[in-house]
Amino acid sequence: MFKNQTPGQLSLFAAFTSAASISAVVIGLSLFGLLAVSIKGILLLFGMVLVIDYYANYYFVRHYLYRKIKLIYKVIHRHKMSGEFNSGKVEMSRQILSDVEREVDEWAEKNAKEYEEMEKLATYRRRFIGDVSHELKTPIFNIQGFIYTLLDGAMEDPEVRTQYLNRAAKNVDRLQAIVEDLETINKLESGQMALDLREFDIFELASEVFSDLEMRAKDRNTRLIFKEGADKHFQVRADKESIHQVLVNLIHNSIKYSPEGGTTKVSFYDMESYVLVEVSDSGLGIAAEHLPHVFDRFYRIDKSRSRDAGGTGLGLSIVKHIIEAHKQTINVRSTPGQGSTFGFTLEKA
Ligand code: ADP
Q1: Residue 150: pLDDT band with limits 50, 70, 90
Q2: Considering the chain, what percentage of its residues have pLDDT values greater than 90?
Q3: Is the CB of 280 under 6 A from ligand 1?
Q4: Ligand 1 atom showing the smallest separation from residue 283 Cα
Q5: Taking 70 as the threshold, does the pLDDT of residue 27 lie above it?
Q6: Does residue 223 carry a pLDDT above 60?
Q7: What is the pLDDT of residues 239-281, one digit of tens each?
Q8: Which of 236, 304, 331, 349 could form a disulfide bond with 199, CB atoms 3.0-4.6 angstroms apart?
């Protein structure tokens, strides 16, 4: 009943109760002949108590409320009170308590969300630092081993020296690749990488990537081709440089994770306002339980294979970040032993 009353209504109700109680006592005393008061007197008494008590309640409620509410606002607004409370007044005709209750609820909800967000970020940061140090440890440990072994005398043997220096150099390259990929991820995640959206021909760009990766494909005897019937030219609107990186990462993976003599096919499909670009291989494939994780940072199905192929475990994570920065989607389907298809969309120009 009193849930949504204004402070003014509450003061009036309290005053009315007091006035009625006092009048009832006076009437009772009169009935027993202990007091001689006329009806007029009782009405006057009732009116006076009502008015005096109303103003007294009003004054105390106002001051009490003001102090309490000011305290609440100080806490929830971090000293920035709303204008009403700054002026030192409480608007008594408003349902001030339900307003404050609502604001405190909103504040609590916002705080809970902020806290949850901070928890997530803290967990992410902890995992990220753990992953990075774990990834850097292996090449550093290897380089350390080769250098100390050389210093301990192995460098006297020219053959061993060349071999160890080559291995150390390979590990330095790995370190560099990890740091460069981490830098890219960091730029993408912090939103520092501004997209330079331009129109370009996606078929032309894929042809360029085929040329860039020609040597790697030749090394593994892999054919890089466009799928017949899905080899049309499409003008898309995207950041050319980052889409170049997406295609390099996907096509490079298709070469790395396929047995020698495989085929990588790139195809383009018209989806009204989008173009679907697919990179398919005839490689190892990915088991269903790994599929949801392949875009995760440092996720590798076969760690040693990835490392031997110079992988950082960040390639697909970068690809996903880039596609999402374009507000587009990427997905993968795969059959172990038959091959995988990575497909992403791009906005048509
Ligand atoms: P990496 O540097 O290890 O290649 P990626 O992020 O590019 O890292 O890929 C993550 C993992 O997903 C790889 O280690 C590999 O196990 C798997 N993978 C990626 N592409 C393919 C593919 N085309 N066929 C099979 N497995 C793949």
Answers
A1: very high
A2: 72
A3: no
A4: 24
A5: yes
A6: yes
A7: 999 999 999 999 999 999 999 999 999 999 999 999 999 999 9
A8: 349
The whole-angstrom separation of Cα 323 and Cα 329 is: 6
Residue 58 Cα to ligand 1 midpoint, Å, equals 73
Alpha helices in 190-328 (DSSP H): 202-212, 214-219, 240-256, 303-308, 315-325
| Cβ atoms of residues 19 and 46 within 8 Å | yes
Q: Find the farthest-apart pair of alpha carbons in the chain and give their distance in angstroms, rounded.
A: 128
CA–centroid distance, 300 to ligand 1, in Å, is: 6
Mean pLDDT score of the chain = 90
Nearest alpha carbon to residue 99 among 173, 226, 4: 4
140 lines ligand 1 (CB under 6 A): no
Residue 282 CA to ligand 1 centre (angstroms) = 14
Beta carbon of 61 within 6 Å of any ligand 1 atom: no
20: Cβ–Cβ under 8 A, 6 or more apart, which residues? 46
Q: pLDDT-derived band of residue 192, with 50, 70 and 90 as boundaries?
A: confident
Task: Please give the Cα distance from 279 to 218 (Å, whole number).
Answer: 18
What atom of ligand 1 comes closest to residue 258's alpha carbon? Answer: 24
Beta bridge partners of 263: 223
CB 319 within 8 A of CB 249: yes
What pLDDT shows up at residue 7?
78
Helix (H, G, I), strand (E, B) or coil at 266: strand
Q: What is the CATH number of domain 197-347?
A: 3.30.565.10
**Ligand 1 centre distance from Cα of residue 273 (Å):** 30
Per CATH, the number for 123-190 is 1.10.287.130
Give the atom of ligand 1 at the shortest distance from the alpha carbon of 318. 6
Distance 271 CA to ligand 1 centre (A): 27
Query: Where exactly are the structural domains of the chain?
Result: 7-94, 123-190, 197-347
Dist CA 54 CA 46 (whole Å): 12
Ramachandran assignment for 215, one of left (phi > 0), alpha (psi -120 to 50 degrees), beta (any other): alpha
R_g of the chain computed on alpha carbons: 38
